[in-house]
Amino acid sequence: MRIEYKNLKKGTICIMTYLILIFFLTISNIPFSLYYAAAAGVGLFIFFMEAEWKGKSRFTEEELVQLEWLLSEVRHRYYVHGMVDEAIREAIDHCPYEHIRKEAEKIYEVLVATDTKTAKAIYQENQNNRFYNMFLTLSLMVSEFGDQRIDGESLYLGNIKNLRNEIHIEIQSKRATRHHFSGLTFLILLPMFCVKLIEGWGVSNLPELEDFYKSNYGSIFYVVLFSVTIFLYYLFYILKTPFTLELKEHKLLERMMRIEFLKAIIQNFSERFYYQTRKTEKLLKGVGESMSPEMFLLKRLLCSAGAFATFLVYSFYLSKSHYSAFSLLAVMFLSILVSYVPYWILIYRTKVMQMCMEDEVLQFHSILLMLMYMEQVSAFELLEAMEEFSVIFKSSLRECIYEYESGQMEALEHLKEKENCVPFQKLVDNLIMCDQIGVIKALDEIALERNFYREKRKQQNEYNLEKKRVICNFLSFIPLFLTIGVYLIIPFVTVSISKLMEISTEING
């Protein structure tokens, strides 16, 4: 599987666009306050994030549509003459899509290679689309062991049909996700650009509010609103983006871990809180993070230190010469709070991933149904196919494959114990029985419930999508409620009560 690396291209374009915008407004003598400069920066960043997400979503959808066309073409041509490599070759010659044609040519080269096992491994290292990998696996197995007829139908043709069904479900899921989440980003950003309008309306109705908004209260609210907007959008982005494995480079953390005294502090803390460190390690592995728990702890400390410095400078700016011990305590409390943010995000990512666990197990059922009737297929080949197609359980399945040679039963039992997902554990039980009673008998339970699992997967996708939509709706309205409640209602009530008290004092005096 190919592991994607994040690059700086998106960030560079965003920064350059922002600088050009500020430069244009400056030379044009257009009034542009510091607040709107910051708001424009946040808005531009979120705009580029949205553009990237929509671009990736549409590209993936188009690629799946093209792949579905290719499978249909291969199925038709295989039906004519019964040769896998020739069917793919003819489909390539008639393919109107350049991208899918290149991928099909790579698959064809693997099929006709002298050492297909090595060629397959090389191909899968540079390919992260699991549907390509599954198509290659099905084609290779038929090329090596031959086709069979199950219930009067060609096994290869039936598997191609099932794979097309899986692709169709994936396409529908992506379209539904894009439809349900469209417009919610606008709701997150809207309060940030309406604060000044709310402020103007409030001052026009109650002039005493002007002093209130120009005080430290207004400045602190701006920082809180910007922070909350960015944080909530990040949670929103995680929720609507499909879970993927990404290898991120942590060069700064790696260099800092080489500093002896810092390394000693981190290791000492890890040893003292051993249980928490192991829990963090499990969470990091679960979401596909490449950093160690020690590096994650260092990341938390850096976030806290950065927040402390920022809050300290900002509090000095607000208090001028009247800095108090209470301000310092507030800064320290906020810094400690920030140190927990990376850990909360890690737990949040884990919860989002767990929402998709059962759906991936149902996808495994489809994979096993495609392979169970193949001659000479064993539990090991089934594990390899599951690992190639998996995202959430990939690391556990890969570890099981590595341990398989030293003990088949022990490796599968360890896999079952490692993952706390009941449907997955039941599936592993079926794999354990494969070497005892045979693959077909062991998986007969899944085959008999084929239509049930297919319908269940559709319902599970709809449920997960609805659950995500509800969460995103809740997140998107938080900045609006925060703005109305904290920046409009509280100042109105506070100033009104203060004014009422003054009037009451004058009357009584």
What this model shows, in words?
There is one protein chain. The protein is mainly α and about 500 residues long. The chain has a domain at about 1-155. The chain has 24 helices and two strands. It has helices spanning about 10-25, 35-80, 85-95, 100-110, 115-125, 130-145, 155-180, 185-205, 210-215, 215-240, 250-255, 260-270, 275-285, 295-320, 325-340, 340-355, 355-370, 380-390, 395-405, 410-420, 420-435, 440, 445-450, 450-509; strands spanning about 150, 155. It has a two-stranded antiparallel ribbon. Helix 1 (about 10-25) runs antiparallel to helix 2 and helix 4 packs antiparallel against helix 5 (about 115-125). The longest helix is centred in the C-terminal third of the chain and has 59 residues, at about 450-509. The model is unreliable at about 1-10 (pLDDT under 50).
Give a concise summary.
The chain is an all-alpha fold and 509 residues long. It has helices at residues 9-27, 34-81, 84-93, 98-111, 116-125, 130-145, 155-181, 184-205, 209-213, 216-240, 251-256, 260-272, 274-286, 293-319, 325-339, 341-355, 357-371, 379-389, 394-404, 408-418, 422-437, 439-442, 444-448, 450-508, and strands at residues 149-150, 153-154. The chain has a domain at 1-157.
